[in-house]
Amino acid sequence: MLKARTDVVGSLLRPPELIAARNYYAAGEIGPAQFKDVEDRAVDGVIDAQEAAGLDVITDGEMRRESFQSQMTEAIGGFGEYTIDAFLWGNWHGDDQVGDKQVERPTQMGVVEPLWRKRHLSVEEFVYARAKTDRPIKVTLPSPSLFANFWQSDAPDNPYPSLDRFLDHVTIILKEEVQELIRLGCTYIQIDAPHYPLLIAEETRAFYENQGWDIDRWLQHGIALDNEVMVDHPDVTYAFHLCRGNQGSRWLVSGSYEPIAEQIFTNIKAERLMLEYDDERSGDFEPLRHVPEDKMVVLGIVTTKSGYRESADELCERIEAASEHVPLDRLAISPQCGFATSIIGNNLTIADQQHKLQTLAEAAQRMWPADYA
Fold first, then answer.
1. Which of 97, 218, 320, 321 is deepest in the core (most CB within 10 A)?
2. Which of 211, 225, 208, 245 is closest to 337 using CA atoms?
3. How confident is the model over 283-306, as pLDDT tens digits?
């Protein structure tokens, strides 16, 4: 099992030139080769930034994605027409600076034909990044049941007779992706599952229950699908990320992990639990008592929601508080979520982001000096 003390959830802020190039490419103003060159330079930049910060784990910053989950709809045929709102919809809450925002669920979302593979989801990300660093590279993939968001039981052209059949097919696709990543030498894979904490709040839980599964089925069969994706291999470590929504510095729900902690923490096969713990919205560390002894907890104690610059002293205090529930040797630290879950990004600067990553590394070196000797 990977024991890296510093980690990243996945996404980093896209540089302005990449966002501009994506728009030019969509409009047909530049070709694929020119666009890929801009993407490559963006990936080079974030890898250099993570190494300079002193992080133990590297991602490609999800520079090649519109959203953390969009590689599924981009790489797999069968989804209907959609816009970026397919990944942004919901009743979002923000602080006084960004305010609340409501994004309606697009009516055109859905599945219009049996899913089929156009290309691999994340292989390009891994193969390119592994040539740029000698540090462990993490590849992030969405949880299969997250795509219940695209399910419409009453759609006239729905090719699947049930939500179960649809998600079974999504699971097969993601498992095949993991197998190919492993074949190419990937040793660290993360499953992103932000929809499970949405079961905590009545408003968001109602949507998922209306899709056809009650909360018990979400916490049993949904986790079984996640486990199916995580192909057993002695060289591979899996992480499982839970958060409460992260778009444009806003969130969807608040509340402790307690109602879902025991079922998820004890039943998920992942060795590293990446948990959001950057402010009071996440509750206290008490639910960590449910974490089995064979798992590490990666504490998301640096916020990506704002430019507030945490100090290493603050982070060390939080780590010590968590160690009352999980031994220090089974703890690590990270940001609470991505800095740019979609191309929109959160309300902070690249300089803020870099300071936060450097502070993570500083705190880790203070708390686990033997690992850096």
1. 218
2. 245
3. 999 999 999 999 999 999 999 999
